[in-house]
């Protein structure tokens, strides 16, 4: 079983494991990540193995500073502006990969671009101490919900990894927003912890939407899959259903729900994002066959919340990550 260590005591043990080519679950501001040295092919292979990923999807490489980022990727002026505005933080930038960056090709699944992110807090200190970028997908078994607490990560992956670093519940609660600059335009590849409107305000232009083919290979529909079925934007709760509520007002039949958790009684989307994965997990553990979800506004972080809910509700295919 994995050891859970508080972040204040975990830097040296985590570093020792990473230097030995092992993987470690670490906190980031978005979700917990399953981290390995991005320059070490065996370590990256262990990430896929521990997650049970059915195929190699490109991973995000996490950096501690702009200098490290610049040694790995080529930053056009717009990507640089985005990095300066939102890093460290929940934004991932896809940029052309430098051939001499030392990144193992398993990280990018052979693409000539790389997804880069500069996290806050423990992750950043760990990367700086290692002196190398960390490849880290969300710390969950393929097809399960991303872990937002150390205990969720330990109960999911604990028999396959030796250390989970605990820094409490992740403040953002869902994954980073992923964008890519193409011909002076910024394309949204995955909505996430930075709202599209914030990015548009920073760059003074609208985001391009609608991913193109391989460019978002990790965007498979069944990515976030609880065991329960999901019914979204419900107008009522049916017998036997659990309810994932939002805001002060309840839908019809709510009193009969077998269990209810409210993402944000006040209707705050940031709070709802923080609670989303852990509340889905909790209702799922209770064993209801179906989780009914109240309508959630689509503006701001609501876009990413609705995106994750749609994935959780999608038919279960082989194409999981
Ligand atoms: O918040 C997050 O982003 C978390 C924390 C741990 O940093 N990480 C995370 O990683 O969500 P993961 O592996 O679950 O998702 C990475 C996404 C995938 O959808 C993948 O397809 C996409 O990034 N991606 C990676 N490299 C890419 C590339 N070169 N071009 C396009 N998409 C890429
Ligand atoms: Mg994931």
UniProtKB/TrEMBL annotation:
Pfam families: Sua5_C, Sua5_yciO_yrdC. Keywords: ATP-binding, Cytoplasm, Nucleotide-binding, Nucleotidyltransferase, Transferase, tRNA processing. This is Threonylcarbamoyl-AMP synthase. It is found in: Cytoplasm. The keyword Transferase applies. It comes from the Bacteria. Belongs to the SUA5 family. Signal peptide: none annotated. The lineage of its organism: Bacteria, Pseudomonadati, Pseudomonadota, Alphaproteobacteria, Hyphomicrobiales.
